[in-house]
Amino acid sequence: MTRKALSQALPLIPSSVMIGVFFLIPFVLILLASVATLTPEGDMAYGFDLSHFERFLSWFYIQRALFSAGMCALIAVLSLLIAFPFTYMLTTFSDRAKKIWLIYILAQLSLSEVLIAFSWQILLSRTAGLGNILEWVGIAEKSFAMAPSAGAVIAALVYLAVPFAVLLLYPALSRMDRSLIEAARTLGTSPLRSFFTIVIPVNRSAIVSSSVTIFVLTLGAIIVPQVLGSPEHWTLSVLITDQAIFNFNLPFASALAVVLLILSASVIGLVMRFSGGEK
Amino acid sequence: MSGLEISNVSKHYGAVTAVNDVNLRFNKGEMICFLGPSGCGKTTLLRMIAGLEEPTSGTIHFEGRDLTHVPVHKRNIGMVFQSFALFPHLSVGENIAYSMKIRGHSRAEREDRVRELLDMIHLPGIEDRRISQLSGGQRQRVAIARALALNPEIFLLDEPMSALDANLREAMQIELRKLQQELGITTVVVTHDQTEAMTMADNIVVMGKAKVLQSGKPLDIYKSPVDKFVAGFIGTSNLLPATFSGNGAVGFGATDVKYSAANGSFANGEQVLLMTRPEEIFVHKASETRPENAIEGTVTFVRDIGATIEILVDCNGYEVISVLTPKDDPDVHVGTKVFVEMPPAACSVLAA
Asked: Most buried of the four, A193, B60, B314, B319, by CB within 10 Å?
């Protein structure tokens, strides 16, 4: 290796080591574990055993995988529906107002998933939640529990995802040339229509990449589905935790993790391919 | 028939006054240039005509119709933005046809009009290209075509040449002017380039510090600017401090200089400015007979570029520039003592 090539490679070593030690090696271990055999003593022996993947191929697990993907896609869409118009409005605020909002949103991110899950549990409970307000206002005859339910899981995950979506969309939206909207207006477009014909398409790549990020992020959520959902609302991530921690079946948990990884990788790939086609 | 009427229009942003009590009248079909340094309020005034800003007070009429509070998208205007503001997600053809699509014109109609407009801007056959594939000059033409797609009543351009390089700029000025005359469309151009304004405009509005300083035909403004700011902004001018002495003359040092026009009335002994244009004054060697209406000075710089000769003369510590044709070449060098002849017709008096 020449001196020049060496000096170029040198700065990359620390980061390569970091990625290797903390990401690549664990990933290889998971791959190995997913094809390992579970011994009767509950230990695992490395080998090449595809039985865990075969076990996944039952309707129960496929259904769980599809449910997870579907629910997270829905959450991504809902989050974007809330975050995009809000972020667009945020970029028109004064600098001071912008700063305050962004600080508030960043602070929101520091709340842990656990805290959010249990807060929503109270909020949706029969005795101390929204149901009581509905009863008081007279919309509902009697207070009722809104959790556990799919709606509760989705609501809490959207709540969790919206600040991320805002922060992901903000750079693109604040960089957008405002005169594009003005130009559309001078060409006879109403404000609402210019939002749909200009603002959204111009920011399409930012919308796509934040949706994918939200999708992947919520796919990995464990606590919210467990706390606010009944077992039929559990995502693949919850099942992985269940297998790894409570059933001591590391090989099967690893196999499920590999499936989850393939699932999210193929969604990212598909979306990138689909949205990159017109660029 | 009255065209564009701007009456008592002001625009305030908090304590800042962007446009201060502007009154202007233009005929239909004229090309108007708002000329001034940055921050003089010219763009704000243009945006108020477009409807992108609402005047704090005053009214804007076009052909007797009050436009003041009509929203942008209901005014029949076409606007070219400084950045051109072409839609990056649409092709050239889709950009040009955008307004027609919004108004519900059929696909065939749109395609015909796009072809027609691309021919007009001398870029036929590029309707399927992406905006990112176009050069700066092409983008400007496409922006013009897009703005004109629906035959607007008023055509507005905000610093349209600022993104182009110098050569292209000159060609586009002429082309834009030709196009405007062909279409007979009332056009307002904002610029800080006086040559651009002189090239294109029927009427120039010189603005400074949120106010209209002078408006009129380009040559009228050039020949009799109302004050030193306008004189300095439109063309090059020589401004010499002088004392008003009545009898159609001002005193510069010990010399009396006759003038033909005075902008304002002045008292005897008042300090004024004597203004001349470089191409209207002459330089003679001091060894020759002293011409009438001449002041003395020393040559400090000569620039002979063939077609014209520029001579800088130091007169009592003030610099005077004279631009001569080769036939009037006085054959002087740096250090030559000279007379600077200022024919009375070339001299006008401005407030100091």
From this structure: B60
